[in-house]
Specification:
mainly alpha, about 220 residues, 11 helices, single chain
């Protein structure tokens, strides 16, 4: 059977549905955080466009949703206007999405630890496995988006600290972003991001379990 993500719907329907739901929710929260932070700091571009919402039709759009259903990968794109943000505010807006994902990772890890501590042993179909998946996905999303590569959030933060980088991005346009993403996906860097997210989530679950055992 093909390795296309969509075929998991027939081979492992629980895993397919769980991944789609977790990624959709996590991206929507990520983009909501961008919109909320922007509105608080003087740029209501995303808020005016309806991004103070958890609606995937707004936060992701049909192309991203289709890519998620077929390939298991998706994105969001809350707009912002750098010129409306004061010094340092652009960085705060840029990292707000990843901060929201880190918070979600911690909360899902806590819920997973509680389910394991007070519930049945972990099963692949059980709530602990779903919560662990959500923790891993959010930790990975946070790390991924903080990479200093265009068009990721980490690049926006670095670009504000080093303004000459903006001219590089503008000069090369979409080619620059495509080259950066190619480096990410075609080298071991992408695998390292996944492993880092897994390790962060596992450490969080283990930490919560130790805390619960000590109570």
């Amino acid at each position: 059977m093909s390795g296309l993500f969509f075929f998991q719907l027939f081979e492992q329907p629980w895993a397919y549905v769980a991944w789609v739901l977790v990624v959709t929710f996590s991206i929507c929260v990520h983009e909501f955080a961008h919109a909320w932070a922007g509105a608080q700091l003087g740029d209501d571009t995303a808020a005016a466009a309806g991004h103070l919402s958890l609606d995937p039709r707004v936060q992701m759009g049909p192309r991203s949703i289709a890519m998620l259903l077929i390939f298991g990968l998706a994105w969001g794109a809350a707009p912002f206007s750098p010129r409306r943000l004061g010094r340092g505010a652009r960085t705060l807006v840029a990292v707000s999405g990843s901060a929201a994902n880190l918070l979600l990772a911690a909360l899902f890890a806590a819920a997973c630890a509680a389910a394991v501590h007070w519930g049945r042993p972990m099963r692949i179909e059980g709530a602990p496995a779903l919560l662990a998946l959500a923790a891993r996905a959010n930790a990975t999303l946070a790390i991924f988006n903080l990479l200093p590569l265009p068009p990721l959030d980490g690049w926006s933060a670095v670009e504000e600290a080093l303004p000459p980088l903006a001219s590089v991005r503008l000069r090369w346009g979409p080619t620059f972003s495509l080259a950066a993403l190619a480096i990410l996906f075609l080298t071991p860097l992408f695998g390292l991001v996944w492993r880092a997210g897994d390790a962060m989530a596992a450490a969080a679950v283990a930490g919560w379990l130790r805390l619960l055992s000590a109570v």
